[in-house]
Design a protein that fits this description.
This protein has about 100 residues and is an all-alpha fold. It has one domain: Orthogonal Bundle (Helix Hairpins), CATH 1.10.287.110. It contains 4 helices and no strands.
C-alpha cells in the first residue's frame, strides 16, 4: 500500500485549522473539477482531493490519520503497512 500525504494533496500544513482545510479543498476542487478544468487528469485529481478532504475534514478520521503517521516519517508514494483493521478493509489509508 502506498502512503498518501493528504496534507500535501490539499496544500496545507499539518497544523492547519478545519477552516483552512475546508478553504483549500474548495479552492482546489473548483480548479480541478472535470466540468471546469481542461487538465487531462482533472477527474483523478478531483478524486484525490475528495479522498484527502474525506479524511482531514472529519475530526475523528483526521486524528486517526495523524496517529498513523506519528513517529513515522512517511513520504507520499512510500510503501507502508497499515495496522490491522485500519481503514475498515477499504484498502486506503484513512478508510475514506
Amino acid at each position: 500500500m502506498e502512503y498518501k500525504d493528504y496534507y500535501q494533496t490539499l496544500g496545507v500544513a499539518k497544523t492547519a485549522s478545519e477552516d483552512e482545510i475546508k478553504k483549500a479543498y474548495r479552492k482546489l476542487v473548483r480548479k480541478y473539477h472535470p466540468d471546469v478544468s481542461k487538465e487531462a487528469d482533472a477527474q483523478k485529481k478531483t478524486q484525490e482531493l475528495n479522498e484527502a478532504y474525506g479524511v482531514l475534514g472529519d475530526a475523528e478520521k483526521r486524528a486517526a490519520y495523524d496517529d498513523l503517521g506519528r513517529g513515522q516519517q512517511f513520504r507520499a508514494g512510500q510503501e507502508f503497512r497499515p495496522p490491522p483493521g485500519w481503514g475498515g478493509g477499504g484498502g486506503r489509508a484513512g478508510g475514506a
